[in-house]
Design goal:
Elements (H helix, E strand, L loop, with lengths): L1 H11 L1 E5 L4 H13 L5 E5 L3 H6 L11 E4 L6 E2 L1 H9 L5 H12 L3 H15 L5 H6 L1
Parallel strand pairs: 1-2
Antiparallel strand pairs: 1-3, 3-4
Length: 134
């Protein structure tokens, strides 16, 4: 039984990379950490050189983004990463389903971009993405 549980946990675990300077990203990560009772999320900030090198990220493009990966090779970003993040936390499944529905009717990425821009506008922190949106 223990072997079966550990095998399931390995397959269900997701690595989450996020911009700690982004208020929207930080809020999503804080909520996920608090509710991740099964410990299926391995969360790392993207502001370290080792994370950028390990996942082959472009340092100029990580600002204001959340990335998820299951295998360490294929990165999801934007709406897809948010869906993957919410699917790993049982109490956030309704949000994952709502995001999937928005994606299906072709409004998901637009909604994600709108929420991100709205969050950055309300923030006083000068991030690279915040400068682009002004």
């Amino acid at each position: 039984m223990k072997h079966l549980l550990s095998t399931w946990r390995k397959k269900a675990t997701s690595h989450v990379l996020y911009d700690p300077d982004c208020p929207f990203c930080s809020k999503q990560i804080q909520r996920a950490k608090r509710l991740d009772w099964l410990q299926l999320l391995h969360i790392q900030p993207t502001n370290t050189a080792e994370v950028i090198q390990q996942y082959h990220l472009d340092p100029a493009k990580v600002s204001g983004k959340i990335y998820t990966t299951k295998d360490g090779q294929t990165l999801q970003e934007g709406l897809d990463s948010l869906i993957n993040l919410n699917k790993r936390v049982i109490l956030l499944w309704p949000i994952a389903l709502s995001l999937l529905l928005l994606k299906w009717i072709k409004l998901g990425q637009k909604t994600y971009d709108w929420l991100l821009k709205r969050s950055l506008r309300s923030s006083d922190q000068p991030t690279a993405l915040n400068q682009q949106t002004k």
